Amino acid sequence: MKWDLAKLRYEPMTESDLDEVLELEDIVYPHPWSRGNFVDSLASGYQAWVLRDQHGYLMGYFLLMLIVDEAHLLNVAVSAEIQGLGLGRFLLNQALACARGLGMESVLLEVRPSNTRALDIYQRYGFSQIGRRKGYYPAAGQQREDAIVMRLGI
């Protein structure tokens, strides 16, 4: 499916978006962010953006934290019904453009080794693995999962 990008609405996330954002987050992640995580991110002034279709349907979002000259991609998600259609790459393009426009020199992220779809997207995009955080993510059965740390110079 091709999207008419001119008809999509790409706009800053606000607290009024959070009910829909949390609904999407709960569907696409086994260990979703809480409302407090999003509220704190917005209050801290992080770059937070949503993508909606021409009818207002929330298609996805991302959040970036800026630290000196590096952006940290904290969260990116695409609605489950439309995954695999290129919108994750579109949001990644937007996140990198946002970071570049704010003078950042690189983007850092963490990704679960079990999130093979995201890992593949990041690798194809040019992100390189620079480390691993042991037991970084909560996992099923009171376990923890490592995070692969990746960086891309922009």
Catalogue the unreliable spans.
none
Contiguous helical run count: 4
Task: State mean pLDDT (0 to 100 scale).
Answer: 93
Kindly, what is the distance between the CA atoms of the first and last residues, rounded to a whole number of angstroms? 29 Å
SSE order:
EHHEEEHEHEE
Based on DSSP secondary structure assignment, what is the total number of beta strands? 7
User: Outline, from the CA principal axes?
Assistant: globular
Largest sheet: 7 strands, mixed
Approximate strand percentage: 35-45%
Query: Can you give the helix content as a percent range?
Result: 25-40%
Widest beta sheet: strand line-up:
1-2-3-4-5-7-6
- Decide which structural class fits the backbone: alpha+beta
Q: Tell me the Rg in angstroms.
A: 15 Å
Lay out the secondary structure.
Layout: E1 9-12, H1 18-28, H2 35-43, E2 47-52, E3 58-67, E4 70-78, H3 87-101, E5 106-111, H4 116-125, E6 128-138, E7 144-153
Parallel strand pairs: 4-5
Antiparallel strand pairs: 1-2, 2-3, 3-4, 5-7, 6-7
Description:
With 154 residues, this protein is of the alpha+beta class. Helices cover 29% and strands 36% of the residues. The protein contains 4 helices and 7 strands. It has helices at residues 18-28, 35-43, 87-101, 116-125, and strands at residues 9-12, 47-52, 58-67, 70-78, 106-111, 128-138, 144-153. It has a 7-stranded mixed sheet with strand order 1-2-3-4-5-7-6. Strand 2 (47-52) and strand 3 form a beta hairpin. The two termini are 29 Å apart. The model has no long low-confidence stretch (mean pLDDT 93).
